[in-house]
Amino acid sequence: MNGPMNANAQRTDGRTTDAGTTDARTTEGWTGDARTTDGRVGDGRAAGPRVVVIGGGISGLAAAHRLVTAGARVTLLEGSDRLGGKLLAGEIAGAPVDLGAESLLARRPEAVALAERVGLGDRLQAPATTTASVWSRGTLVPMPKGHVMGVPGDGRAVEGLLSAEAVARIGRDLALPPTEIGEDVAIGAYVAERMGHEVVDRLVEPLLGGVYAGDAYRISMRAAVPALFAAARRHPTLTEAVRAVQQAGAATPGAATGLGGTGLGAAVFAGVRGGVGTLPGAVADAIRAAGGTVLTRTPVTELRRTGPDGWQAVTPERTYTADAVVLATPAGPAAALLAAHAPTASTELGAVEYASMALVTLAFRRADVAALPGSGFLVPPVDGHTIKASTFSSQKWRWVTDAAPDLFVLRTSVGRHGEEERVHREEADLVDVSLRDLSAATGLAARPVAAAVTRWIGGLPQYPVGHLARMERVRAAVAGLPGLALAGAAYEGVGIPACIASGSRAADEIIATSKTTHPGAGHSS
User: Fold this and answer.
1) Which of 86, 221, 325, 399 is 20 to 30 Å from the Cα of 229, by its Cα?
2) Helix, strand, coil: what percent of the chain each, to 5?
3) What is the per-residue pLDDT across 177-232, written as a single tens digit (0 to 9) for each?
4) Cα end-to-end distance, the chain, whole Å
5) CB of 132 within 8 A of CB of 377?
6) How far is CA 301 from the centre of its chain?
7) What is the dihedral of CA 352, 489, 201, 441, to 10 degrees?
8) For residues 353 and 417, is the Cβ–Cβ distance under 8 A?
């Protein structure tokens, strides 16, 4: 979304159009070549299973791509009128921007690998700068190094950001007796017990807030920082656990990144020229090119069983019969569709909470903006400011500057779990409060030439203590439903690579099952 500041706010309830929308390619809504009477397609290949993927976010798209390239006949059904979920490319004042997620965690292989497979490999970029700050006690302080998601392995690493008393408190962790953390623990509560509240409030909280839009004192350590959780169960102190994680990372720098020949090197994060929001369209195009169908404006209102193995996905216009279904929607819609078939799973999914947030994207004349430090800054909520972070897009991503050299684009984010009223403020109010906080933090006095507000209502699932155990119960509850697999941000991670991995895992479950029930499934088309 772009235009003047009084433009309507962008919402993520499917109110934008997707140029790649397509209708079903046959009257049955299925794709592929004509079948012969012996169940083979026209070129002699064995016909793969018919699979409906419900949900066109990056999880569902990843599942559909994996399935169609393995020989399945895939139809993806998305209820809104666009694809991509929390990935949304747009523009402001003529400059291309991301209005949703804007980077990929490159140290996990899934997102970079998928981008390469769908032809975006030459558009992957490392950030132009990775330096960032924390706006703490009215001052921008360089982001400390030598920590694991804000938890330091040495108090000296956070000098300058934390008070002398807080630094001294960190050192006392080594003298404390071990803390029993059991099967899960809130990362904020555990770190505060070991190292003090200031570490949590001024470093852990803003870092986790950018990922989950949640409360560090509720977020599961097992889910959010699994490597640190595992190390904390092996070591008597948190300091030793942090150092063990750091040593493991140093021993395998860039391992398993899947960066190949992308030129990203050992970058932790990657962007895509033109925006990460272009990835869903590229995946959808690849699905269609492989023979799959991708439909938007096609909400699934009911799932039905057809015998012991089959399924039907009911939409307002028609019913799709399938051998298998991948359910890749947020937890609430998934709960509704599973209520008649797996009531326990439905109840568990219905209990998953979500946070809303708003992104305020601002474009300034570059000549009006004095030098700003690094790629942006995080904001500890304990200081009481409205914005929780700001990204200087024109400094972080070369492609933004290349596309609009006369503009300076930045964005702020507003909203954490339990702060719905902030997200629903008028667009002009969100712009004004962002400008006030930016001025207080950086001295920025310019007025933007354009502004865009994107509201992600119920956009981020919360991962409180016990969340992963809940998801294990969900999977156990649906295990007795042949031909059904689950995917999405609610299950094993909210990041783009984690969502892609979730979709791929669901596809692999369907492929493994179909090899026994549909000989020839798994054929690469």
Assistant:
1) 86
2) 35, 20, 40
3) 999 999 999 999 999 999 999 999 999 999 998 889 999 999 999 999 999 999 99
4) 37
5) yes
6) 25
7) -120
8) yes
